[in-house]
Amino acid sequence: MNISHHFDDATLMAYASGSLPQGMALLVACHLHWCPHCRQRLSQAEAIGGALLDKIEPMSLQANALKSVMDRLDLEEEIPIPRIDPVQSATNLPAPLHHYLQTDLDHLPWKRLGYGVHHVDLNLQGSGTTRLLKIAPGVSVPHHTHSGNELTLILRGSYTDEIGRFSAGDVADLDGEVKHQPIVDTDQDCICLIATDAPLKFTGIMGRLVQPFIGL
Amino acid sequence: MNNDEPLGGDVNAVLSIAEEKKKEMRDNWSARLTSLAETRDKAVFASLFDYFAPRVKAYITRLGMPPATAEEVTQEAMLSVWRKAHMFNSEKASASTWIFTLARNLCIDRMRREKAVEYELPEEEPDPDQRDQGEHLILEERMRDAIATLPENQAQVLHLSYYEGKSHSEIADQLGIPLGSVKSRLRLAFSKLKAHWGEEE
Asked: What are the residue boundaries of the RNA polymerase sigma-70 region domain, all occurrences included (chain B) (predicted)?
């Protein structure tokens, strides 16, 4: 996979500090799965957390804390935590997303949003929305900006916007300062995972008209 | 245990000895955590507990966990240290960093009140010019020193993000600055810290 667009440092720091909403964290985990460059930067962002842990003012535990933990050391692990195997799944989806969907992109209950656009809402908790978007060749998403942050991970196909060309594995990491209008630039559908921490704002007249209907 | 005699009254020398001791201690934690996987020595675990559990509890409390839950999650985190010690790799992270990520993951899972899932990352390809174990610790050490030299406004967003688990928008609201400024301060801080990593960019 030839990845040329990566996360902003600030996004990796938010992931490292555990402060990203659930859907954005899922998306970051998916890209990390594919991208050694971002994994390396993540380990640096996590080292900041480790350094801060060393500097923090310690807080006493309950008097019996050590004993009660020691008593549990030899017990069987109560509930094994499900681990997501890093092995690439047969569906070509990054493992964290495959684990969540339990199916491949062609067997999802896609819902039509408008001309040439389908979506599946992942219904994750927390602020913002997380959805898969499938956009037909030649179709463009209305011009929009963001009141918060928007992360997009391309899973299949590609699109071009004011920033550049994005293909499978690439991420677009945008905030309110960016205004863009992606257009699918091959004869293949473009499927992306999109996670936001606040609603999008459409800018053009068309955008304002469609927003109430498609609820993007 | 503050029994260092000042050497010739040179304050800097005394300070640098104190720093050196702290550094040795941190290297020591990584070595102990590595040995725990092989020896399963409970006395070693108890020493790790004494140092790290009160720090983990302080961290979790600052993230906004109620006291009873913070205590419980801290104990869970320390239990994970015991159970997962074999997964610790001192070539990739220091003991502090590894325990930080364990505690962070437990907090995220707890706050979401849902089944815990861990996104295990693929193993890295062996690096042709593989750093040795000591070198990674030196890099983290340099990063620690660099944090202390960050300008106040960068240190502030770093603390709000890592210590209080605040999102960028929440930090923007709290400080009354635009979202873009929060992110640019974090980027500036990160690029300074990364410069001490001595590679890339």
From this structure: 48-115
